[in-house]
């Protein structure tokens, strides 16, 4: 099934609005993340919910019996609504949109840090602290390793790229040398 981000965004916005109104936005986020963890064990839940060979009543019974009382009722109602509207295939995209809304409410900005080699948690925390100080925002860092940068760090914070990689420095040096006619 082709998943439509626009559909997922509408459901995420509606869920966020309802959760914010009740003061449970963060709890709902934790519950959505918990349901996503179930999917990591195996895609059988999503496959079951999307299956045309399973009656809708059975899908709804499964959702209510497995999740009701274990996750916030808004999460259960979201799943049931998406089942009834035949939009359950878009559910996997709701979490990232919803998470972005909650993080924005909390003043948290996503950032990606790319290094040439894996770095330890202490170094990552140090990078986070430095980036938070320079941006004035609380950050949620995601780390990725890309050996092609050769060394250094490339950080992307809120769409702004801070490139202090060796690859970038070498390219800048090359441009300087070409401009001064040292290299031809």
The CATH architecture name of the largest domain reads Orthogonal Bundle
Helicity range: 55-70%
The strand count comes to 4
Number of structural domains: 2
Overall mean confidence score, pLDDT = 89
Terminal residue distance: 53 Å
Low-confidence stretches: none
Which range does the strand content fall in? Answer: 15-25%
The shape, in one word, is elongated
Can you summarize the main beta sheet?
4 strands, mixed
CATH superfamily of the largest domain: N-terminal domain of the delta subunit of the F1F0-ATP synthase
Structural class: alpha+beta
Strand order of the largest sheet: 2-1-3-4
Q: What string gives the helices and strands in order? A: HHHHHHEHEEEH
Keywords: ATP synthesis, Cell membrane, CF(1), Hydrogen ion transport, Ion transport, Membrane, Transport
GO molecular function, one term: proton-transporting ATP synthase activity, rotational mechanism
Membrane topology: Peripheral membrane protein
Protein name: ATP synthase subunit delta
């Amino acid at each position: 099934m082709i998943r439509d981000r626009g559909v997922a965004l509408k459901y995420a916005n509606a869920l966020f609005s309802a959760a914010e109104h009740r003061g449970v936005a963060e709890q709902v986020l934790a519950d959505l993340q918990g349901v996503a963890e179930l999917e990591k064990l195996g895609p059988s839940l999503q496959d079951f919910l999307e299956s045309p060979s399973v009656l809708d009543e059975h899908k709804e019974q499964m959702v209510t019996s497995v999740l009701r009382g274990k996750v916030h009722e808004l999460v259960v109602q979201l799943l049931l609504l998406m089942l009834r509207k035949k939009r359950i295939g878009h559910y996997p995209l709701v979490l990232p949109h919803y998470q972005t809304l909650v993080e924005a409410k909390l003043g948290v900005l996503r950032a990606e840090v790319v290094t040439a080699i894996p770095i330890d948690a202490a170094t990552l925390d140090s990078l986070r602290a430095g980036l938070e100080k320079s941006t004035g925002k609380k950050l949620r860092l995601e780390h990725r390793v890309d050996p092609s940068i050769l060394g250094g760090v490339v950080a992307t914070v809120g769409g702004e790229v801070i490139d202090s990689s060796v690859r970038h420095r070498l390219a800048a040096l090359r441009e300087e040398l070409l401009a001064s006619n040292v290299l031809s």
